[in-house]
Design goal:
Belongs to the RRF family. The protein is an alpha+beta fold. The protein has helices at 6-25, 75-84, 107-144, 150-183, and strands at residues 41-44, 47-50, 55-61, 64-69, 92-94, 97-101. The chain folds into two domains: 6-25 and 106-183, Topoisomerase I, Chain A, domain 4 (Orthogonal Bundle), CATH 1.10.132; 34-101, Gyrase A, domain 2, CATH 3.30.1360. The strands form two sheets. A four-stranded antiparallel β-sheet has the order 3-4-6-5, covered by helices on one side. A two-stranded antiparallel sheet has the order 1-2.
């Protein structure tokens, strides 16, 4: 029974890139982005709940987020949750709406965020290389078990390497785009 599964390897590599893109979307640039509030949890009804389950988040202006709280009793809890999340945002309450103006990023903070984007990319590339290693080990095991020939193994190793190169390049381009976005705001 062959262990090597090209589709699984490609799926796992694509998953690493998607995870990177998700992580990068949470980095704050100068523009308002609703995904910035994804990690915020709010204590309501005696339980911790994600912000998106107690309110609607939108970006009415390029530098402002608005959180429309569904239950008026939860407004202060939402405000507290946003403050606790340490996002560097200063919530202002206006009835059932919590407004979050996006402060300007300092040059130092921009560099920190760009560096963080690079770290996220490196983690994704490590994950991709780990998937490649697993694929190569599976191919060697298949060859040892006489499921494939040496020529097949080498051909398939080239395929795995090409997939690796493709997804590493994708990770790099996603990180570069985010770094550029951060530095040019």
């Amino acid at each position: 029974m062959a262990k090597y599964d090209k589709a699984d390897i490609e799926r796992r590599m694509a998953g690493a890139v998607e995870s990177l893109k998700s992580d990068l979307s949470g980095l704050r640039t100068g523009r308002a982005n609703t995904s910035l509030l994804d990690p915020v949890v709010v204590e309501v009804y005696g339980a911790m709940m994600p912000l998106n389950q107690v309110a609607t988040v939108n970006a009415p202006e390029p530098r402002m987020l608005a959180v429309q709280v569904w239950d008026k009793a939860n407004v202060s809890a939402v405000e507290k949750g946003i403050t606790k999340a340490n996002l560097g945002l200063n919530p202002m309450t206006d009835g059932q709406t919590v407004r979050l103006p996006m402060p300007d990023l300092t040059e130092e903070r921009r560099k920190e965020l760009a560096k963080l984007a690079g770290q996220y990319a490196e983690k994704a590339k490590i994950a991709i290389r780990n998937v490649r290693r697993d694929g190569m080990e599976d191919l060697k095991a298949d060859e040892k078990a006489k499921d494939i020939s040496e020529d097949d193994r080498k051909r398939m190793e080239d395929e795995v390497q090409k997939l690796t190169d493709k997804y590493v390049a994708e990770a790099d381009s996603a990180a570069e785009a985010k770094e550029k976005e951060i530095m040019t705001q």
